[in-house]
Amino acid sequence: MDQAAKLQAMLAGSDNIVFFGGAGVSTESGIPDFRSVDGLYSQQYAYPPEVMLSHSFYVSHTDEFYAFYKAKLLAPGAKPNKAHIRLAEWERTGKVKAVITQNIDGLHQAAGSKTVLELHGSVKRNYCSRCKAFYDEQFIIRASGVPTCSCGGTVKPDVVLYEEGLDMGIMQQATAFIANADVLIVAGTSLVVYPAAGLIDYYRGNKLVLINRAPTSADGKADLLIQGSVGEVLGMVSL
C-alpha cells in the first residue's frame, strides 16, 4: 500500500481530525516559506529578516519595517491550493475539527474553513495602535509609507512579530484540539519555531501523520511519514 492509500485508510475511519500546518502549506499558492533553500531567510537584506520582523525593529525603524513587510509578507493575489480546499471540504463533512496554522495569509478561511486557529495572527487584520480602529489588508497596501489611522495613530498588522508573545487563549484552544484528536496531521512545517512547534507533544493518539518536503526533528514520532508537497498529498485523498 502506498503512502497516499495509507493516509486515506487512516483518515476514512476518523471524524476527529486536527490539522497543524506551516509555511509549506502555502508555498503551492506562490507564497514563499522562510527556511527552505529558496526561502525568505536565504535572501540578502540590509538586516536579517528575523530582525526586520521583530517588535523592536517595528518600533525603531517603522518605515523600513513596512517596506519589507509589504514587499515580502503580503500576497493579495494568492489563492487557496488543494491543501486548503481539501481541509475545508473535510471540515464541512464533519471529519476535520480544527485547522491550526502558523501562516498569516488567511488562505484557509478563503477556502472555506471555519475553525481556524491562527497562532501568528493574520495580514488580513490591522489595528490602530491608538484607537484600535480596524483596517483591512488593502489599506496597508495602498498606504504610502507607514499606514496611519484617521486619528493619527500608526496602524499595526495583527501578526505576531519576533519578541512578541503568542495569544495564550489561542494556544490553549490549539492544545485542547490536539490533545483530543484521533488523527493529527502535521504538514508543511519545519517544527523549529517555538512555542508553536511544541504543540504536537500534546497529542495522545497513535495516528500522527507528518507531511513535509524535508526531514524534521519529529519524523521519528510519526505513525505515517510522507515526504512531498502538502497539496499534492491531500489532493490524492478523497473522503
General description of the model:
This protein has 239 residues and is α/β, with parallel strands linked by helices. Helix 6 links the parallel strand 2 and strand 3. The strands form two sheets. The protein has a six-stranded parallel β-sheet, sandwiched between helices. The chain has a three-stranded antiparallel β-sheet with strand order 5-4-6. The chain has helices at 3-12, 49-52, 55-60, 62-72, 82-92, 107-111, 137-142, 168-180, 230-235, and strands at residues 17-21, 96-101, 116-118, 121-128, 134-135, 155-159, 183-187, 208-212, 224-227. It starts with a helix and ends with a helix. It has a domain at 1-31 and 80-120 and 165-239: Rossmann fold. It is built from nine helices and nine strands.
